[in-house]
Amino acid sequence: MNLSFRQLHPKFVAEVSEIDLKEARDQSVLDEIRAGMDKYAVLVFRNQQLTNEEQLEFSQRFDGKLHTQTSLSVLTKNRHGNEALSDIANVNEKGELMAKDDRRRMNNLGNRLWHTDASFVDPAGRYSLLLGKVIPPVRADTEFADMRAAYDALDDELKATIEDLHVHHSIVYSRQVLGFEFTQEEQDKLKGAVHPLVRTIPGSKRRALYLASHASRVVEWPVPEGRALLRDLTEHATQPEFVYQHEWRTGDLVIWDNRATMHRGRPFDDAKHRRELTRTTTLDIALAS
């Protein structure tokens, strides 16, 4: 099968020709998708009717081990019964809209900050696969920022300054910025991780900024200076020229490379409109040959 890719943004993102991903088992097809990820960083697949089990199975077949140490995993029992399937929804286990003060809803508000999935663990997240199952009748978009293009646009002096810096990432930090409170036991389970500020994407060899709302401090710098640098780089990387806004349709499966992008959910009236998405995230470890 030869897939085609229709670019949706001048710098990145492509919609892939029709394919049923639950039937995508041939190695050549999976390799085509991976090559598309290296080129575009975000791929959109339409009309995907995957069960939870099929999404989990395809994610593992495509890219190996799945991330399970999410913030929600320490707050509550997973509604879908598997911590590898993140419940990106505004409904509870009874299928009712969550109350505004529900801790799960308040935690999920952090998804509206620019972030990178699973940057707060080691190994960090590689690919995320988000499936739109119930889409509200109002816009509830997801925005993506191309961190490769953002890095390319930096001047040489700033590139040299940040080349060897490392950043501590903590989901506790990003949620506390919004006023969310964790117990000490919860914090102990979410200690965070340190990663380089600049990464090279192995498949494309392109350099990319590695930022997120989880980025709490620059290890080598004093905290105030480091946080100012992270704020400035984030502002630079999320300028309109680097950003694509995805308008969801039911059955959309969007795959993105967390090493090459940041993303955020756009706000909508989640006390009125039901929305249900499921996400899997693979870990950035070598695939078995």
General description of the model:
- This protein is of the alpha+beta class and 289 residues long.
- It has a single domain (5-283), classed as 4-Layer Sandwich (Double-stranded beta-helix).
- It contains nine helices and 15 strands.
- The strands form four sheets. Strands 1-2-3-13-5-15-4 form a seven-stranded mixed β-sheet, with helices on one face. Strands 12-6-14 form a three-stranded antiparallel β-sheet.
- The protein is globular, with a radius of gyration of 18 Å.
Q: Could you name the CATH homologous superfamily?
A: Clavaminate synthase-like
Overall geometry comes to: globular
Based on helices, strands and strand pairing, what is the structural class? alpha+beta
Query: What share of residues are in beta strands?
Result: 15-25%
Beta strands, count: 15
**Largest beta sheet: what is the strand line-up?**
1-2-3-13-5-15-4
Mean residue pLDDT: 94
Indicate the radius of gyration in whole angstroms: 18 Å
Low-pLDDT sequence parts: none
**Sheet with most strands:** 7 strands, mixed
**CATH top level class name:** Alpha Beta
List strands and helices in order, with pairings:
Elements: E1 5-7, E2 14-16, H1 27-40, E3 42-45, H2 52-63, H3 71-75, E4 86-89, H4 103-108, E5 125-134, E6 142-146, H5 147-152, H6 156-162, E7 166-169, H7 171-177, H8 184-189, E8 193-196, E9 198-200, E10 207-209, E11 215-218, H9 223-237, E12 243-246, E13 253-257, E14 261-265, E15 276-283
Parallel strand pairs: 2-3
Antiparallel strand pairs: 1-2, 3-13, 4-15, 5-13, 5-15, 6-12, 6-14, 7-8, 7-11, 9-10
